Amino acid sequence: MEMNDLVIVSVDDHISEPPDLFDKHVSGADLETAPKLITDVTGGEMWVYQGMQFPCVGLNAVVGRPFEEYGMEPTSLEQMRKGVYDVHARIGDMDVNGIAASLNFGSVFDFAGGRLARAPDKKLAVRHLAAYNDWHIDEWCGAYPGRFIPCAILPTWDMDATIAEIKRVSDKGCHTVSINENPTVIGLPSIHNDYWDPFFKAINDYDVTICLHIGGGNPAPHASMETPIEAWISTMPLTIAVGAADWLQLEELQQYPNLRIALSEGSIGWVPYFLERADFSNSRHKAWTNSRFPGDKKPSDTFKQHFLNCFIDDAFGLQNIQYIGEDMIAYECDYPHSDTLWPEVPERLWPTINHLTDEQIDKITHRNAMRFFRFPLFDHFKREEITVGALRERARAAGVDTTPKSSGGERPLAEGETRPVTSGDIMKMFARHEDERKQAA
Questions:
Q1: Consecutive H or E run containing 373
Q2: What ranges in 155-235 are assigned the alpha helix state H?
Q3: What is the CATH code of the structural domain delimited by 3-440?
Q4: pLDDT at position 194 over 90
Q5: Which of 82, 273, 304, 395 lies deepest, with the highest CB count within 10 Å?
Q6: CA–CA separation, 352 vs 311, rounded Å?
Q7: Is-cis flag, bond preceding 404, omega within 30?
Q8: What is the pTM (predicted TM-score) of this model?
Q9: Where are the domains of the chain?
């Protein structure tokens, strides 16, 4: 196999939604009260809904910018590459990057819809959440069948509505949902509470995959406001271990052997030691902890049975797949965030996997994703139509431009300052934007 023969499915990308996303999916009073994308007097855009404001429309959507402009967060759609919010442009950006198919998380309600849990009118929020899912499944994913893996969000504050939505989106062909890895941060019971019993039963009954995306429930801590921002960025993928440890203790993993959980944007290099530590802790403490792992079954056995591990750039992890499980690793691009390797994914991925067998490469680049997310890629395309080489040839024919483009925006440091950018600098920049918008409102 050569680099151009790869078929790459990305299981973690993102959308900054366009302003018309609700127009075709609700009408009358529901359309009138739907979330609106507005422009304030500062020129920034934000979503407003039920008295709430969701600023930083394109938080970290810096794909296509020169590297020196990273950290200057876009505040309007026009400051972003068109593929961030336009599905037709997105396909071009996928083609030029050699990406056959992609699973996309939303932004307006956060990656898992948690912002809606704060809405005063929860019944109205349920209707607008369903409309959002319809836009995502029918309009975004449906525009190019076979190129996107649909991923729904759920009204987890209302369990009856959640079960109904799981059934509804499943009937529409969506077999993946995104929820907060730690629902206590949005005011809901923990995953170990009986509140979630109907949810896990429905997930099992409808054969749906759960995505847990980093940053929602257990965000990366930063040591101080004076800590250089690179330290914070470096630890972000590692926070997934907190959620993974919590979910690994979930009773339903023993009850439902086919339950599938994807650890989105968590990388893989940490997994071998995590499993070693989990097994060691269990062996030393299960005599008094009332461990949920039956008989001789170890935590690592349960983890390898249920959890898909997703990576962007992880050469160490790919040298150690025997300790992770070649059937439970998948690739992700993270377009349009700052970690994305667009438009050079194949060039960065190939040297880290070319020591593997062709079968292992196929598993990691697309077959595991197809199986885990019930995504029949080859029902839509022949392999030779969606290889890196074939997609890039199509992108060249379409004239997709990958030249970095300056988009402007506020720098975190004053002109002439040469000290490292700190966590505090970024927090102050976001706070200043929010204050300006509140004053404008």
A1: none
A2: 159-171, 197-205, 229-235
A3: 3.20.20.140
A4: yes
A5: 395
A6: 12
A7: no
A8: 0.96
A9: 3-440
